[in-house]
Structure formats: structure tokens, C-alpha cells
Automatic annotation (TrEMBL):
One of its GO terms (molecular function) is flavin adenine dinucleotide binding. Its cofactor is FAD. It comes from the Bacteria. The keyword NADP applies. The keyword NADP applies. Belongs to the FAD-binding monooxygenase family. This is NAD(P)/FAD-dependent oxidoreductase.
Amino acid sequence: MPKTLDALIIGAGFSGLYQLHALRDRLGLKVEVLEAAEGVGGTWYWNRYPGARCDSESHSYCYAFSAELIREWEFSERYPEQPEIMRYLNHVADRFDLKRDIRFNTRVTGARYDAEENLWHVTTEAGETVSATWLITAVGCLSTTNTPDMPGLASFKGRTVHTGEWPHEGLEFLRGQRVGQIGTGSTGIQAAPVIAEHAAHLTVFQRTPNYSVPARNAPLSEEFRRHVRENFDEIREVMHSNTNGHAFRITERSVFDVSEAEREAIYEAAWEKGGLQFRANFSDILTDLKANQTAAEFVKRKIREIVKDPATAALLSDIDHPYAAKRPPIDSFYFETFNRPNVSLVDVRSNPIESITPDGLRLRDGTEHKLDIIVFATGFDAMTGPLLRLNIEGRDGIALRDAWAAGPRSYLGLQVAGFPNLFTVTGPGSPSVLCNMPVAIEQHVEWITDCIAHLRANGIARIEPAPEAVEDWVGQVNAAADETLLPQASSSWYLGANVPGKPRVFMPYAGGMARYRGICEDVAARGYAGFALSP
Ligand code: NA7
């Protein structure tokens, strides 16, 4: 007899942990989490690559729902490193006694909605079935790795590793090796400086050059920690009321409200301060191309100042998308790394990788690079990948993969028409990836929890978005993107452009977290407007 639960959650990262706590401990539901890994952490469990660190500042990269949790946990650095985030999430899981309801080493391979029983039947790799009324995916947005299908890959005699599936053995295997790194997104930019410290030689294969601003990571002073402890309510208020969920506000002034000299001084100070705040000094950086160019030119100039070899500097700064139109990385000595004698940069935009060979890789012009290890920092099948690989089947046997063949369509990023009682935390159409993630996650989890409480209290067995509401939301997601420069980065994962064959649809809601929160609250206040509710 398959097990039947009130709610089943897939994934035990930031989202799944809080969703379990909220449904089990606040609503008293019978809930279980299925998790493929052998521990909690989700994306952070897998992403153990060299230099893996969060780009959100640690005092904002945490749950804000529990005053006790805030009081008892302190991160040690401005940006938390992967092992410290893992310690934090394990602390949360232990503190709220979550692990007893998480089944580890359990990969979901299918989920099917049965209309007659009004149940989701979820199957696992081991062939087990678990059934539940409410199915909540908490599978993250950047958890399905994308390894390009390069000819000859299987023939490589050395070792290949994707940053998002980094082995648990650490970094020692890089020692003294000739390492090739493919990819210069946020991950590659974090990884290269640390790989270079271990490898005999690091060759970075760059297709699209990228802007990056120094993170200026450092240990947190006792004074700053006290400030956070004593002022967390105000910090949370900032995080909840701005567009990006970070603990800083975007200054309400145009790039052109100040003189050129003032602007230069502002950029210079922001560069020295470091971090994602770099784009927060003006309100029009992401909406006005001319304004954006001032920031872009500033960063390009910095790259050329830092990198000593003029040809390498030219390649690194030959960036043609607007600043921050691709997810803007922050780094710890990325550009400086190219001044090391054991690091070289190879442009694979003009001269693409043609094949992997037994001894390394070959470019189109015939140049061979001999390598012992290839690191794929090639990103993820973002947002839709983690959901599609669950093989979800909704009402009338419709597969999510077919429903989204032309790109994802959701209502609020939280539900999909034809898939009753399925909630997608941080799904496509939500603002999560453009936001400090835990802020978006808390909002989604709390909204879903309140929704399920409302349904139960009112004897409603089924919730599903109306097709018109989905149509309208897709329109709002497109309109919000079009108000920004974000769609102009043609190779961005926001557009699915990094995965060959993936539909080019701008996936996240770019209207800002605060606006989104208001919309979700309004929908709930109007009795879940746009959703079909049935008893
Ligand atoms: P990204 O940002 O998608 O970056 C992937 C990088 O890999 C990017 O530079 C790609 O170049 C490059 N890439 C992908 N496929 C290839 C092939 N076939 N040949 C050469 N280069 C390739 O992933 P990240 O892991 O860095 O970051 C993902 C998010 O994680 C990040 O934005 C944060 O939100 C956290 P391209 O730009 O496609 O030309």
C-alpha cells in the first residue's frame, strides 16, 4: 500500500527545509521531503567547486522568519562560503528537527496527478511510490547541470568535472595538473582564482567575456555583527521592501543627475566597497542603455587597468552586452588571476572548441591544448531543467514537458494550469533568481502555506490557475522584462540561451520582489483570484 501524505516536498535546500517546517509545524500536516542527495543543502550541497561562495551578503543570505534563529547564528565573512552555508542549513535542519521527515538518497523520477483520487503519485528511482494531496517542488533554479555535448568528450583520458557536481574530495586532485576551465559565468569567475592556486597551469576558455566587480570579501567585524543583531528588524524591512531582496536600497537618481566627475567618484567608491551594490548607486542602470554604458565603460576600464597583458585585457574587456544584463558576477581577484604566470586565456568565441581529444581539446583552427583535467563551469539548464526532469504529468495525462514545449508558462511562478495542487517554489515566472534568494523563498513558502491553510479551512480540495490568469501573468513577465535591458544579453541563462535547443523565453519576473509580493498578497486577499478552486 503506497504511503499517503498531506503534502510531499521535493528537495531539501533553502526552500524545502522551510516548506517542511511551515507545513508540518505551523499547519500540523503530514509531510515528507524527498531529497536526492545524502544531506540537506540543495544547490549548495552539490556546488562544492573551488571558490564557491554566495554573492549575497551573509547577513541577508539567511532565513528571517525566526527571531531565535537570527539571534543564534552568525556568519563569519561578508559573503558566506559554501561550507559555511552547509553548516548553516544543517543547523536549521537540526534546530527545527527537520531531518526526521526528510528521506535522503531518494531521487524522484516521476510525478503523476490522479484526478479521481485527487492525489499526486510520486515515484522514486528505487521504484517506490509516495502519494500526497499537495505536491511542492523545492528543486531550485540552478540544480540541473549543463555539460555541452562536445564531440570526443568520452575519449578524454583525463578527468572531467562540472562545477555543479564537484566531487567531495576537495581540491587536491587539481594539484600540479594542467587544468582547462570552460565557462566564465559567475561560477567560472569564482573558480578560476582558486584553481590557479592549485593547478600547474590553468587555461580559461572564454566564449562570452563578462563584467565583474570585486566582492571585497572579508571577515565580519564584531561591530558589524552587533549592528546586525541589534537592527535586524530594519534590515529585514529593507530586504522586504526593495526590488532585489538585498539589504541595500537602489538610490533613486539617474546616472545623468550627476556630473561626469561625480559619477566617476561614485563608481570608484562603489568599486572600492565591492559587491552587487555596484549597480545600486543609480536607478536607471538596468533600464537605460546610455546610463548602463557609463557603468559598463567604467568596469571595462578597470579590467584593462588590472590585467597587464594588453591582448588578454582586450579579450576580457571585449564585452558587448549591457552591464548586469547577464547575472552580474562579483569576484575575488578574478582579473588579477590572468597576471599569474601559470594562467592563460583562450578566446573560443572567434575560434570555438571543435572537439575534446584524448589529451585535451582542439579548437576550430586546429590548435591543440593538452590538459589533464577539464572543468566545466558551463552553468545550468536553469529554472525549467530541475522541474522537467521530474517527469511531471498533470490532469488528463498532460506532461509538463509538453505544456512547456515553447517555454514555461505559470501563474505567479507558483502554479501551472493543468497541474492541480502542484506548487513550484521559485518556479519560472517568479522573481527569485533576480532577487536575494532566501527572501524570495520565504515569500513563496509563506504564500503557499497560507494558501493551503485557506483551502483546508474552506473545504477546498483542488486549486489550479485559470488559463486566462496564466496568459495574463506570462504577459506581465514579458512586459516587466521589456522594461529592462535584461533581455538584451543574448547568451544569458535567464533566456535559456546557454542550453542548445531550449526555447528562448525570458523566464524570471523582472518587476521586482516588492511589486511581486504585493501582487501575491492581493491575489490571496481576493480569495485567490485567478485560481479555480473546487471542493
Ligand atoms: P552561466 O552563467 O550560465 O555561465 C556558463 C558559462 O559557460 C558561460 O561563460 C558560457 O558562455 C560558458 N559556456 C557554456 N557552454 C559553452 C560551450 N559549449 N563552449 C564554451 N563556453 C560555454 O553559469 P554559472 O554556473 O557561471 O552561473 C550560474 C548562476 O549560478 C549564476 O548566474 C548565479 O546566479 C549562480 P556563454 O555566455 O554561453 O557564451
